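Worked Example 4.2. Read the sequence first, then its structure tokens.
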Amino acid sequence: MTAGDGGRPTLEKTIFLVSDSTGQTAKLLLSRLLVQYGDLGEPRVRLFAGVTTAAQLTDLMEQAEALSRDLLVFATLVDPKLSDLLEQLAASMDVRYINVFKPLLTSLDSWFGSSARGIPGDCFEGPVMTQSAVNTEFFRMADAVQFVQQHISGLNRQDWPKADVILVGLSRVGKEVAAGYLAQRGVRAACLSVAPGEALPPELSLLRQGKIVVLAMEADALVRRRRSRIAELERRAAPSFLESGYANPERVEFEVKFLADLVRRHPEWLGPIDCTYLAMDELCAALTRELRLNG
């Protein structure tokens, strides 16, 4: 095990990431899985995108054979012919592999009663095959995903200085979903819910200007979200720790006014960004833009 560029240990293992499209889905999926082994260090990852022919697949498998002792082929192939060829080559070359989509598509074929079309999900317009080391941006995404998982609902506040952004807002405004979306872009986000009568954590005042972003929402929309949350918990017969009146319109209106006053008292905070009519991708674009302008 050696030290990587980011100071984290690098495992003496290699993953060939094989996709018949752009490789974005494969990278995201692998990054989520590698979070589970983050304490072991970072394996070397090489991306093979746009693999759509037998010749391309055979060539990369020959490269894998030369490194097969500590190598794993992690594929997201949907073409059944390429999928079958991968199995044959892996068996003949003694290369360990995972074709993630094959068992998923087999189950879906059975459920739909129809065969998958075998068409890659994205339109690939680059070179026929791109082979390169996945740089630190890939592992930044994996690290950001893990960071978000550990810093929802105000948890682990001692780590807030390491965050790229702290999302502050009322309960159910969408902070956690936005944080997860940002993590896919390598942004380390933490979340904090605020409410009348609850003191702000002192760690918040120690953060540099431009790191705290407020998310807001109109009262009517927030009431609907909270009612949906209550209904979902009741449907699942799950225990609820929500306070009485959580979705009461008068209470929510009071909280919205409280948040507006809080923002006025903290001009160093960014926003508020009104989430009421924004789709998640639009919200995250607005967040990214805000951070870029004030970073």
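Now turn to a second chain, presented in exactly the same format:
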Amino acid sequence: MNIRRIECFLMVVDTGTVTAAAGQLFIAQPALSRQLQTLESELGFKLFDHNRNRLQLTPAGREFVPMARLLLSNARLVQAGAKNIATGHIKRLHLAATPATIRGLVAPFLATLPPSAPLILTHEAEHFHIHDQLRSGIDLVISPAPCGEEFASQLLGMIPIKAYVPQSHPWAQAGRTAINLEELLTQPLILPSTHSVSRVELDLAVARAGLQYSSVEECDEAHTIQALAVSGHGVGIVTDRPRYGAYGLHIQISERDVLGVTLHAAWDRQHYGTGTLETLAEQVRTYLATARQLPLSELGE
């Protein structure tokens, strides 16, 4: 099937008329009409009906639209992959992660890369369905959940969940670096909702310890949580780095362990740039270990 004809078909769908589509594609209107007629012949069904000088998708045409988009997307991926294979390196990568992971890990990591590194473009995704992004043109995902056998993966390590207070708080005045759960739960807390992985991890830790919250307010915006903490409305719990002069403390859940979110990188095993993705995942792993000042052995194999 000719990919150019698929492009023509989708352009007509998106613009609504052959005239508008021809202008976008920089071809003559009769030539575009012939492309559509040829595509209909190849498919064996009509794509459009004429309705008052406008083209209207037939039921079969509507069914074909998502298939055509998938075909065009895959064809472009193949073209890009072939070009990158021929040149020996990948120039551009698309990475999906939760907003908190992008803010707290990915963006700071990207700031350390040299200009010669691939251009890495980030895309926000919900952690519940993040691995589905690998089936939609995303090259690499960083997720708090391990992936199945379908994808290649790399354990990156743990990003800590911090308790933030104002500089005037007794914990900050004492120069403390960590607090335990019992101490934390005596305070009014400002938490993300249960849609957040960090909230789920905190809830599990509280339940395992047989403890209960005393006072909780919920907010799903990490910057606001820190701002409210700094203004004295409660202890803010986020994985983000400190802002607005907030003082951060680790949350101790045992003698050796602090509360955090474990992160994994995953990618398609058949990706043309597997070598580059493996190297990138290892670089993120090393960066995370260095940022936490932990040896790689503590992050797992």
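Notes for the reader: The domain at 3-86 is CATH 1.10.10.10 (Arc Repressor Mutant, subunit A). The first strand starts at residue 48 and ends at 51.
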